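Troubleshooting: if your tokenizer reports a length mismatch, compare your output against this known-good record of 138 residues.
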Amino acid sequence: MPEEIINKVIETASAVADIVTDIKESGVDLINDKIKEVSGSLQIINKSGFTLKDIGVTLGIPPDIGGTFIFDRNVPDEEWEKLFSETEDKQTLNMLLRSLFKAQDMAEKMKLGGFKLDSVSIVLGIPPGISLKFKPGV
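Known-good structure output:
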């Protein structure tokens, strides 16, 4: 009886290990796909008034992918709408642009004395994580 329990525990642990390996491998494929989509769309991202500074990946279950974007200039709402419609077939890029739009909109509404928006960090997820950084205005 104890031997049967031990065998069941070993089988279960092995099955869990296989599942974790599958998730990790599919996570790497997903990260690669997202990075390709973003890196292939830098011209569109630049139209949003932001420049991609870097991309970061956190390995885990699930893995995280994010980027830091330098704020260059305000873009009117009409331009944002054009960008959203141009990218509606690219889910990751569209989510990224919508996050940048929300960051720009929030920064415009915030009154932080002499500080202005410097950069935005976004972690892609549902919902995306958005972090704003401000610098003293000139």
